[in-house]
Amino acid sequence: MSKKILVTGGLGYIGSHTVVALQEKGFEVVIIDNLSNSSLDVLGGITKITKISPEFENLDLREKQDVNRFFEKYSDLAGVIHFAASKAVGESVQNPLLYYENNINTLVYLLQQLKEKKSSNFIFSSSCTVYGQADELPITENAPVKRAESPYGNTKQIGEEIIADTCKVVPGLRAISLRYFNPIGAHPSAQIGELPIGTPQNLVPFITQTAAGKREQLSVFGKDYPTPDGTCIRDYIHVMDLARAHVVALERLLDGEQQDNYEVFNLGTGKGNSVLEAIQAFEKVSGKKLPYSFAERREGDITSAYADTHKANKVLNWKAEYNIEDAMASAWKWQQKLEEKEQ
Using CA atoms, how far apart are residues 24 and 203, in angstroms rounded to an integer? Predict the structure, then answer.
């Protein structure tokens, strides 16, 4: 049986760590990435870690003919893990059409190809944003999917609906949507990590760049949320734990263990930390004091979100092994490596 897996967005943050995890489990990986929010250097980092250079296709999934040609060339894929998407909440509010084109059209083109196969396995990179501000915490997979707070969140909701609808009518398609909470951290080797192009949209790269002196100070968006310290609460999960979950989910599909041909799992630690607690965790592991100031709330941000992970723990036999301090320490090591490269 083929062990060749397509990873779209495989040079991105979560994609690259998942490629490493797949190769370490003996899978042969083909990466599609258009380098719009990633760097070809990441391919070198993956190769240094695993001693295997994955196949790479520089391809824009929005170009349907290119997608069709890719599947003609790689007809022996055992599965697809789909990361390629635009992912910044704030940017999606400013430029919704970019997000709908990039996140929805590309998914449809991939599924159209998989529909033609006798059997296919598909893992979708989804998000806890589908829950909006949940009524109850921690959030279970049965929590209602609420009206999205941002076009980004909406693309994840629509994406899941498209996959579920397709699975109903394509019996050979088996799919899992993984709803991530907040991925942070880097590979322990510091060969790969989060590499935002331009101004970071996520908290931890902003923290590490501020600590490295690249940013004057960190902006904490909102200090009047109804939380113990007034800042937003999130479930910060180490990217290494997240990568491992993709391999476990893929193996579940390949082994035919699904009860239904479409399943959904939360991926988080099950614990919430506020923005100020995240800053304190970084300060503790790095020994650096972070300059920060409070700014206005950002449109699209919710108050609090953390996962109930019992379903993934039980069904996938997976649980997060790293804590927020582990993740912050690896993120800081990665930032220091980037600084060395620039000198």
Answer: 29
Number of domains in the chain: 2
What DSSP state is assigned to residue 36?
A: S
State how far the Cα of 236 lies from the Cα of 279, in Å rounded to an integer: 12
The answer, yes or no, to whether the previous bond of 138 is cis (omega within 30 of 0) is yes
Could you tell me if 103 and 221 lie in one domain? no
Question: What is the CATH classification number for the domain harbouring 292?
Answer: 3.90.25.10
Range of the domain at 161: 4-184+236-267
Rg (CA), the chain: 19
The amino acid at residue 22 is L
The answer to whether residue 321 is domain-embedded is yes
The answer on 331 and 210 residing in a single domain is: yes
152 has catalytic annotation: yes
> How does pLDDT run across 193-240, given as a tens digit for each residue?
999 888 888 899 999 999 999 999 999 999 999 999 999 999 999 999
Residue 340, phi then psi, degrees to nearest 5: -60, -40
Compute CA distances 24 → 28, 47, 321, whole Å: 10, 11, 18
Q: What is the mean pLDDT of residues 148-176?
A: 95
Sheet arrangement for strand 28-33: 55-58, 28-33, 4-8, 79-82, 120-127, 173-180, 262-267
Residues 212 and 293 in one domain: yes
Q: How far apart are alpha carbons 33 and 56 in whole angstroms?
A: 8
- Same domain for 175 and 159: yes
* Whether residue 165 is found in the same domain as residue 277: no
Q: Are 313 and 306 in contact (CB under 8 A)?
A: no
Catalytic residue among 13, 99, 152, 225: 152
Residues 85 and 110 in one domain: yes
Q: What is the DSSP letter of 116?
A: T
Long-range contacts of the stretch 136-140 (C-beta < 8 A, 24+): 137/272, 137/304, 137/305, 137/306, 138/270, 138/272, 138/306, 138/307, 138/308, 138/309, 139/266, 139/305, 139/306, 139/307, 139/308, 140/266, 140/308, 140/310, 140/311
Task: State residue 1's pLDDT score.
Answer: 58
